[in-house]
Amino acid sequence: MELLHAKGAIIAYGDPFVPSFPRMRQHSFDLSSERLDEKTLKSAGCVVLVTDHGAFDCALIARHADLLADCRARYREERANLVRA
Fold first, then answer.
1. d(Cα 65, Cα 42) in Å, to the nearest integer?
2. Which 8-state DSSP code applies to residue 84?
3. Sequence-ordered list of residues with C-beta below 8 angstroms from that of 53, at least 6 positions apart, any chain
4. Across residues 31-57, what is the average pLDDT?
5. What is the pLDDT averaged over residues 52-59?
6. CA dist., res. 35 & res. 14, Å (int)
7. Is the Cβ–Cβ distance between 61 and 40 less than 8 Å?
8. CB 44 within 8 A of CB 60
9. What is the pLDDT of residue 46?
10. Of 33, 71, 37, 31, nearest to 51 (Cα)?
11. How far apart are CA 72 and CA 30, in angstroms?
12. How many Å apart are CA 85 and CA 51, to the nearest integer?
């Protein structure tokens, strides 16, 4: 996240179980969880799935993300917007 931010990326996240980004020893971001809806997903250049739990509407994410990086092997089917990471 720090590398992306240093290159000019605007970082956001959405997770209902983590309302604000936790402070860590070496990393600190002043972020609050955003609602994962059609508008938010469409506004992102890339959506990165780094955790997989039932609170996420994975069909909604796949449908509205321009680019989707799946770090959890959640998506099995091929999609034009999907990169497996």
1. 6
2. E
3. 17
4. 94
5. 91
6. 6
7. no
8. no
9. 97
10. 71
11. 25
12. 12
